[in-house]
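Bumping my old thread because nobody answered last time. Still need a sequence for this structure:
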């Protein structure tokens, strides 16, 4: 009797595992998609142009930015919702903290472009200072495993604006906007 019960449980477990659908995962590593009702929605992919900008004469302000074309991303989402993004990772199922690799940043909107400030400085005839941080402008996200080789990033409700997902030091970003 016990053998029959154990055999039945094994068969049911095998059938249950066989009938489960695999989740959709990105084909390539470090490419971000929005997860919407189980489907992967592509984001705008951009590679930034690095630019140095200065202003002033005796007192000078300087900054280095990564500049992305267009004042708005063509990929738009509604405000007030928690968004979920998926990225295949080269880390696989390792114990590396995804917060040390992937980031969500808010972009500064200009007339014809969006920019991400990488470093800034203030200089006078008697001295100056500068700062550079790879975590400048990083917004909090929650990470969890997704499928066999991917991670899921979940945001809080985002304000209106332009955003980019990327590796912490990557020049290629995946952009979207909130209206």
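Sorry it took so long. Here it is:
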């Amino acid at each position: 009797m016990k053998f029959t019960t154990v055999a039945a449980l094994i068969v049911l477990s095998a059938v249950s595992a066989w009938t489960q659908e695999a989740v959709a995962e990105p084909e390539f590593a470090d490419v971000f998609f929005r997860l919407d009702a189980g489907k992967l929605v592509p984001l705008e992919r951009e590679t930034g142009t690095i630019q140095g900008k200065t202003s002033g004469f005796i007192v000078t302000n300087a900054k280095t930015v990564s500049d992305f074309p267009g004042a708005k991303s063509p990929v738009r989402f509604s405000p007030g919702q928690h968004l979920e993004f998926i990225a295949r990772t080269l880390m696989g199922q390792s114990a590396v903290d995804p917060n040390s690799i992937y980031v969500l940043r808010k972009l500064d909107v200009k007339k014809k472009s969006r920019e991400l400030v990488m470093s800034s400085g203030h200089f006078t005839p008697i001295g100056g200072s500068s700062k550079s941080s790879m975590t400048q402008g990083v917004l909090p996200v929650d990470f969890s495993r997704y499928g066999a080789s991917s991670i899921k990033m979940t945001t809080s409700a985002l304000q209106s604006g332009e955003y980019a997902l990327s590796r912490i030091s990557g020049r290629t970003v995946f952009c979207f906007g909130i209206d």
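The chain has one domain: 25-178. Let me know if any region looks off to you.
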